[in-house]
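Our working data are protein records whose layout never changes between entries. Getting from the letters to the tokens is the skill we practise here. To make this concrete, we reproduce a full record directly below:
***
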Amino acid sequence: MRESGETMTEQQDGSVAQGSSANGQSSATLDGSAQAGARVETMQRMKVDVGGGGEQKSSPATENVFEVSDFNAYYGDFRAVRDVTMDIPRNRITAFIGPSGCGKSTLLRCFNRMNDLVPVAHNTGRILYHGVDLYDPRVDPVEVRRRIGMVFQKPNPFPKSIRENIAFGARIAGYKGDMDELVERSLRRAAIWDEVKDKLKQPGTALSGGQQQRLCIARAIAVEPDVILMDEPCSALDPVATLKIEELMFELRDEFTILIVTHNMQQAARASDETVFLTMGEDRAGYLVEKGPTSEIFTNPRNQLTEDYVSGRFG
């Protein structure tokens, strides 16, 4: 398991400094996808339930990466997310589900301050990342986004070669090591090395949709983030490519904490450890209904709204 050791700490002069990293340089060689279908059941057995929801039963061995308290997200005067309070555990896959427009993607983007780029966006409340308030004015949002990477709904490789898609971000981040080794390690960890190793100079945009999304994941992990945010990463992919992404998520969760927004109930049930269910109130603001182990959310939810949604009665 990857021990990041990276926490943003406040120095005596009030600035925010980057803690030392204990990341190793060993690469994780990922299996190919030839036996993808047969591994779904194995993936399910790998899942570990941890407490959550309104009555959170956090395991003593579980460290929280995020602690969200009374968080509200606004676009101008419109409140998109209302009074969310929850914890996100480390090295787990947490799925965000709920009807369209309930603020899932807005909330996800707030975890790495991507919403800062929307001129009318603002928020109240707190999101603590390893105990540090992400919205403290002394915290550098660029550093936040390096530690908390993001993979978007539509694959968006750079208009560069496959190699440069990996190397570019690492170079900007100040990587001084063997770039070829980093490129190979990142592509292996994203389970795409065997498919692209002989065409690293070809443009990333020439790959298939599923390959492009795995390339984007490789690009995200090349800078050694602590958390990966995924906003509907499989919505534009076929079932085979979707399964490869889900398998990859399970491979990566030992090293990274993963938060994923999905409209696919089967995917949330199949590919997450915890599930967060959001819905909308009469004011159209999204709010947290229930959070807990995925097995409980889908088989024995505590809230009737959750049961109605996961059973398909609405949404």
Notes: The chain is about 30% helix and 25% strand. The longest strand covers residues 64-75.
